[in-house]
Fold:
Amino acid sequence: MATKSKTAGKGTRKRAKDEGREIIRVSEHTAEIVSDSGEGAQKCGQIFGAVCAKMGNGAWTVEIIPAEIQPPPRSKAGGSGNRVRFGTERITNWGDATNLVVAFNEQVLLGRHELDALADDAIILLENMWATHPDPDIQQQWKEALEALSTRNYRIIEVPMEEECLKIVEDPRRGKNMFALGLFAFIYDRDLELIRAQIAHQFRKKSEEVYARNVLLMEAGYAWADANLDFRIEIPTVKSDQPMVVMNGNEAIGMGAVAAGMELCSMYPITPATSASHYLSDVFDKFGGVVHQAEDEIAAVGVAIGASYAGKVAFTITSGPGLSLKQEFLGLAVMVEVPLVVVDVQRGGPSTGLPTKVEQSDLLAAMFGQHGDAPHVVLAPATIEECFHSMVTARRIAETFRTVVMVLTDANLATGVQPFPRPELDPRWQQAPVSLSPIPEGKPAYDWDPRTGLSSRRVPGQKDGMHTATGLAHNEWSKVAYDPESHERGCRMRSRKIAVLQHTLRAPEVYGEESGDLLVVGWGSTKGAIEEAVDRARAQGLSVSSCHLTFLSPLQPGLKEIFRRFERVMTVEINYSDEPHDPFITDENRRRAQLCLLLRAHTLVDVDCWSRVPGQPLRPGFILNAIRERLAMGVGV
Amino acid sequence: MATKSKTAGKGTRKRAKDEGREIIRVSEHTAEIVSDSGEGAQKCGQIFGAVCAKMGNGAWTVEIIPAEIQPPPRSKAGGSGNRVRFGTERITNWGDATNLVVAFNEQVLLGRHELDALADDAIILLENMWATHPDPDIQQQWKEALEALSTRNYRIIEVPMEEECLKIVEDPRRGKNMFALGLFAFIYDRDLELIRAQIAHQFRKKSEEVYARNVLLMEAGYAWADANLDFRIEIPTVKSDQPMVVMNGNEAIGMGAVAAGMELCSMYPITPATSASHYLSDVFDKFGGVVHQAEDEIAAVGVAIGASYAGKVAFTITSGPGLSLKQEFLGLAVMVEVPLVVVDVQRGGPSTGLPTKVEQSDLLAAMFGQHGDAPHVVLAPATIEECFHSMVTARRIAETFRTVVMVLTDANLATGVQPFPRPELDPRWQQAPVSLSPIPEGKPAYDWDPRTGLSSRRVPGQKDGMHTATGLAHNEWSKVAYDPESHERGCRMRSRKIAVLQHTLRAPEVYGEESGDLLVVGWGSTKGAIEEAVDRARAQGLSVSSCHLTFLSPLQPGLKEIFRRFERVMTVEINYSDEPHDPFITDENRRRAQLCLLLRAHTLVDVDCWSRVPGQPLRPGFILNAIRERLAMGVGV
Amino acid sequence: MTHYGCSLLSCGVIDERTFEMDDYQGAVARWCPGCGDHSILTAVQRLLEEEQLKPEETVFVSGIGCSSRFPHYLNTYGFHGLHGRALPVATGVKLERPELNVFVVMGDGDCCSIGAGHWIHATRYNVDMVALLLDNNMYGLTKGQTSPTTPLHFPSNTQPRGTYLEALNPVQATLGVTNASFVAQTAEWIPAHLYETLKAAYHHKGFSFVRILQRCPVYTASVYDEAVRKPDVIEMMVHDDGIYLPDLDQIYKQKIVHNPKDIDGARRLAEVTERVRLGVFYRNEALPRYEDLRRLPAHTAEERVRLLSEELDRYAV
Amino acid sequence: MTHYGCSLLSCGVIDERTFEMDDYQGAVARWCPGCGDHSILTAVQRLLEEEQLKPEETVFVSGIGCSSRFPHYLNTYGFHGLHGRALPVATGVKLERPELNVFVVMGDGDCCSIGAGHWIHATRYNVDMVALLLDNNMYGLTKGQTSPTTPLHFPSNTQPRGTYLEALNPVQATLGVTNASFVAQTAEWIPAHLYETLKAAYHHKGFSFVRILQRCPVYTASVYDEAVRKPDVIEMMVHDDGIYLPDLDQIYKQKIVHNPKDIDGARRLAEVTERVRLGVFYRNEALPRYEDLRRLPAHTAEERVRLLSEELDRYAV
Ligand SMILES: Cc1ncc(C[n+]2csc(CCOP(=O)(O)OP(=O)(O)O)c2C)c(N)n1
Ligand SMILES: Cc1ncc(C[n+]2csc(CCOP(=O)(O)OP(=O)(O)O)c2C)c(N)n1
Ligand code: SF4
Ligand code: SF4
Ligand SMILES: [Mg+2]
Ligand SMILES: [Mg+2]
Structure:
């Protein structure tokens, strides 16, 4: 993409007030800001991303998160900030590399460079106070860093941010970010009114004075850029003809929970799930909803199950370690057929792993982590929009099928920001799940339809409905029953529901041609990157399509049918798999990616996988390489 | 078998003192005793089983466990006792049906009848006090029961047990069991000296007087039988030429733990795992070992991990619900590469399920239950003898590969009693896992061999070995490292070890011909029943073989190769699978048995499954039916 | 029992049903003969009848253990969940349906061992429910393993040469937790006292923790033996604001006046001595209840949609 | 530091090494500037040096949280495990290797919320180790959620309109647990008191629970503000058998004499007032330690094989 934007932009000029200034006109660009943590780069990026979206650009914002609680200043591992990829069309993923970066010191920049985050021809706006810093060590570091950076084709523009900000505030550590925002505003010709409104929103809990100062700083950045830069970058905006909203995936989960009529979010803090409950904590009581922070994850799911048993709409939200702790209770919910929605915002594992970073490695634990046979539903939204709607779907399935529905998102969706069509809300989503009408005589607690396994829900308060729900094997009266028939029937009824749900699902759509040399299969947050890779591959004449699965349990129908139409099938996932050519790895002992394993068992097709666990979203370019490699064409791009 | 034994026995006579008495001479027989719980039937069965084994019979004892804590007396669901299958040859499973039963009342007998536990021509020795009981309801129940029983070909012999026992003791509830033992002793012509010795062992914690009374009762039973029965049953015994021991699977696990040099068993009580720790609690301190009963399962595994980190040999033991709770810590152990042995004595699930009953439904939870990618080893002993040896193997693998080894047994192995060759003990199994020698300079905490992923262990006390083990992503120095390379390397090294282990494994043996129409694949406690079913099928001319897997993770090599040699492959398991012809079930949405799923993914062979969750071991006859069905021959036997 | 009137919780029609003991009877209790749980069940049924609690508006939540079979033996709603996890489930029920009567039944392993964390926190939340600890000093259902309340040196199957630790004192531990609002101790073999204690617990607005000394003839027959045989071992804590049953004076002569408002006194009395103290250690009606603190006005679906629409406006492009 | 002598634990050669502060320095501490954890780290390093603990025979076990990064910043053995689960791991270490010096570092969420059950039981086991609760009244690492010790009405990201519950009192809760043998409270901003408390904890034979009031300038800056600024808010509990630092008399004028043997007094003093009380609430050296109760003679491999062979005889056919 970098190359593409460059060629598209180079040499194009715009008239009017930009006389003499190079106007780089591109259909998309990736801009980022990176600073020490605590310098507010995240806020700048968030505002910038929102403004781009509001102006009518497609956009995808990802957070740049430092690896440590309090990384030392000016350290390569300490970079914090945001990366905003935006363009004229819809943007579905973070892309490959940054085209323009504002960096507050050369070390965090170096960190990004070493991570290979920057395009070869990236434009860099770099705070230059360090070059002349009184500390000779720092001067030396600056020199060495610039030397290291010179191995690439970057265009480095030094910016006296500190100096400029000092004209307005005493402590530029708390202002430089707005100055940088001004730089972006000028470079990308953003709507200043919108920016001011967004600053107001961002600091809505702060004083008027804070707002005014931040606007001043932003304007100073704008002015500096106007006076000093010989280029601007133009990315045409297209106002969407439908109303759009912009938010991150955790906000979408939270809002989706409200839209789905949820009444209780029972949770225990864990990154990267927590921010969804932060969001809900802020707004939920307006809707009569409660966020209950329990003493631990086990209690969190227990409280949700209690509430659901009592007839309310409850969910719990967590990440990997919390999922492990909840397994016993999840099995119970399946066993007593209490509807329950569980959101797992996946992060890097195993164990505490990479708490802030993306991974898709909880799939098998979500599916199989409960002892015994505990059939339930697992689904995975692929976009931020789907995060919202998945909560509505999850509730509906949980209640209709009286079972557990797990919604798997990940750190990429959780923190990524993207505009999407404003959801149309439906009051029916809000309906109370059950009435308190009396139970007719002779109706068992589980009035299983022997064909479908479905039964009607019953909650305390319903006259003549008294019974004791139990996690022990039980018969339809919910009486403990250890005889073979009762247990086998219970198992059968609980499992049958999954088959019935499967019959209501549609085959997934194939993205691209319906047949070909290679089908890439994915799930969850990788959709945008995979489809972009497929587009590029097809543009290169490769016969590649993709197919993205929303339901993981049950799997959607027709997969084998689809797979058969392709020479090869390969999953692309962010979880670990052995590389086929590594020492000791054979086709027989290779540990494959998680969806890959499921699909092999399900279809008996020799599904291959390409998976990585970098703690970052996958780049479309890398997926493209993998596609080429699998098509035995060597590595391209 | 029932039919066979009958024909074999009928009409055969033995001379000597049994003049005039029918001697039924058979190669094997299944005898059981069933009573209300609290009447000591279990003790009787245990003694009888042990005596059979000691006399040189092959034997397999299973417990008959009532479904409730305190079932009401004389209830069909309340039967408690033991079933002993024994014969001239080795006995590997509980068989199909009981040939001779001693029942303390007609209701528990009726329960067994309704469970289809008795052979059509079973001989029944039934306490007859109820026929004339003062309570007319009871008389009525007796009549109805005998009527129900008359639908089968049983031979019912009424025995005045109460009356006879009253001659010796005041409360026959505490003595009838020994009287029954005397009945068995006479019928099967058991060695009375051995019986007396076994009674002494059983009551070793009680007084001499208790022993004497019990012997008297036993002798009374013997005498009654001698005076009143017109038959005896002869099952030739063959003294083994190698020394044998007899015990149940949980004792074997406990003794195996001692043999393996374990120093700590850290546990929380849970059926059916607890009796292993009861056994260890009794003996472990003789060996310097400690059973630590922790406050919960999480603490139990945490203490074991702490001890192992500190250089000791520790294991934890649990059943399904406990496994679910331990998942988070298991992932940590994998991540920090602390050796750990985990025994899961499986029971019926999901949730609290069937606490006392057999199931093999924790396989997938054991394999995949930890969030993130946590590669580790899973193995499953198939016999009681293997329970013993698996602990030695598990320790060795855990330490060599610095990983978690799960040993999956089940309630069938745990409580089943079987003689097996006395293990030859090896002092090397007892060796301390690590020395406290200083760590050479420059040696990282994880000195991973980049090819194998193996590294050397390090424990507190080793000079210059200081480092902090962490569940966060880390580099070889055990420093927290969130960069893509470190994390990917960590994942790779942990996974590679599994591939390396796989290279050391042998392909499983095929039982029967190396190729044919059907291969039955099993794991764990079903081995004996499967092989017996295969033997019978082959005897009927069917081209069937079987293959039993000890390692589930990694799977042993050569499976695909083996499967290819058979027309069909089918697993037989005690966990839930959808029946192919049930409503809504299609080949696509069918939820298959757990090993079946793994094997399909692993081999891409269309492995089928026949699985049941009756809470009981599988009967060879039913497996045989399934085999015939799969071979499209309809149901036989 | 006769069924009249309307069963909906809030339809305004007067419910004229009256309930008798039998109306609360569920399945036949399957505890061992002589098990103290039987008398607790009876006392609870008496309470339900006396208070005329509607079976459909009453929920018994339990964990796993002999004692946790309790709900099955009642004809109310019941939730027989996971070992150690009764309290979170009950909290969820009451938090969202404060109009229900919630009782929790736990064993000593259930509550004090695997459930200890929830016990501490449920005490803190002070949700209005009655929490019964059926303390037989042993793991009953799993057939005799040491529990936190097993007396020192008492043998079990996991500690056959006797336990290693002094028994945990559940009353003292509860009294140590901020927000503890009702803590009492009673014994199942003194039905009158048991009943009065349950009644006081039920009437307390908040989390009422009652430790019930419970005999298990199978595994811990000897533990409460002396206390059962020798009434002088028992010291009744009496107070007008607590429990005082003059009828018992004849048998239980050891008495001490203790005002349940006095927390220091409560903690002193809770210390273990040769005496077994029964009565209310502590009661504080003034402490807020979590479900009240979290109560919010209800909204119609339409209101919620409107509010959410406003919320979406904030995120509009 | 110079390396002399033999490093094996028991080889009898005299170890002539002397250790300086630097010898205990691990990775550079990465807490926020002004974070109270820094001073705790310093005090701990001072203790290690003062006591000349061998780095290789010292193990720091922690959970997950800002505070739980502690072991990484020391040059001893460390185990940075799971959130809430430090105590079981430490118990495993000490139970099997009683010769090691074991320290546990926990946050308030870690210890009092998710780890509450283990906390209660570790107190009961009374394994000889030092357990530090670094109490910043908040979840730090996860960026500001309510913890059990968050003051009432103090806002957090999960309870933005203030917490609902009175803060849990970790000292009182610990004092409620049978076998509690050492309970103290100190503040990281009074280094001398912090140090003395750590030292007393280290020298206590048993489970030494120390709650350290710890400032978190990021999330709870205001909580200890008053106590830091106004020394009169602090009341020093002094005793010859506890902690008494005459040097501090000038600043901390509020004093109360409290004998750490007095459990009733300890519980009274532990009640929350406007005063923040520092010092040793309770100490009892007489309570048995679990690892001692479980200590057994060692056996050679051959002995074990012989004994097992005898055991097999019992099962011989
Ligand atoms: C997670 C889990 N761990 C362990 C068990 C096994 N278990 C069932 S009941 C019980 C203890 C019972 O003791 P207690 O709580 O005192 O109740 P009691 O039976 O004595 O009434 C245990 C350990 C279980 N069911 N689930
Ligand atoms: C099982 C599990 N649940 C939740 C988390 C997320 N988490 C990490 S640290 C933490 C709390 C930190 O607070 P505290 O224990 O008070 O320590 P502090 O950071 O304040 O020092 C939480 C909830 C986790 N890592 N693991
Ligand atoms: S084992 Fe004990 S507690 Fe359980 S039912 Fe029997 S007597 Fe009661
Ligand atoms: S967030 Fe608070 S507790 Fe954590 S390091 Fe920063 S100041 Fe310390
Ligand atoms: Mg108990
Ligand atoms: Mg904290």
User: Anything to note?
Assistant: The domain at 510-633 of chain B is CATH 3.40.50.920 (Rossmann fold).
